[in-house]
Amino acid sequence: MPVLRRLSMSLLFAVMALLPSAASALPLGPTVPSTSQTDSMTAESDGAPDAYEGIFFPVRLPLDAMDNTWGAPRSGGRSHAGTDILAPQMAPAYATVDGEIMRARGEDCVEGQVCRDYYLAIAGDDGRGYLYIHLNDDTPDRPNGCDGLGGVEHAFAPRLVEELKERGTLEGVRVEAGEHIGYTGSSGNADCGVDHIHFEIWEAHDWGASGRVNPYDELVAAIDAGSTRHEVDDLGAPATRALLASQLAITQ
Ligand SMILES: [Zn+2]
């Protein structure tokens, strides 16, 4: 649509003019999406170039921050084996590849029960495994703080919740690259902490037993290729920071 194209081009030029200050403003950024926004308000990007064969970016843009913390020390003597993607509570999470769900932690949570650990693991058709930890466990907007009362409806995407009701488990459910699968939060060992998705890539469908891959470069490549979804403004244009792909690489 010509009008929208002109709008998005003017937005792009406006963003380019702002680049130096925008870079120094991260990770605060100009846009803090409301947690009441749902996936229906997102829009696909222009799409990745045909040559791109990498993963789909697993969290809606814009992010709060993303850094390469592979190998960084963690509690209990562990070293960090993934990438932490910081985004607002309830920011949608997406399947990175076609595949099927291996495990959905928290899927047995019943309404009204306090449940504080939700995650999804996907067995990719590409032979690798993909793990999303810290899916949302709280009531949206947290009117009562981190209450752990979000339930499955605010941890997993609506289609998966329907599948869960029908099948009793999410194990074996097929997902497609780019499909909405869940919501960002702070459950598990990040409970009541910073909202983010801890994202891992395994070399096989074996919980990392064969080895894990540092996802960071693949995540940056997905953003740079436009293999993403992002929040949009009232005119249908992507939220500003979604255009600042290279600025998401906040180095230590
Ligand atoms: Zn992490």
Automatic annotation (TrEMBL):
Highest taxon of source: Bacteria
Gene3D superfamilies cross-referenced by the UniProt entry: Glucose Permease (Domain IIA)
Keywords linked to the UniProt accession: Signal
Signal peptide bounds: 1-25
GO molecular function: metalloendopeptidase activity
Name assigned to this protein: Peptidase, M23/M37 family
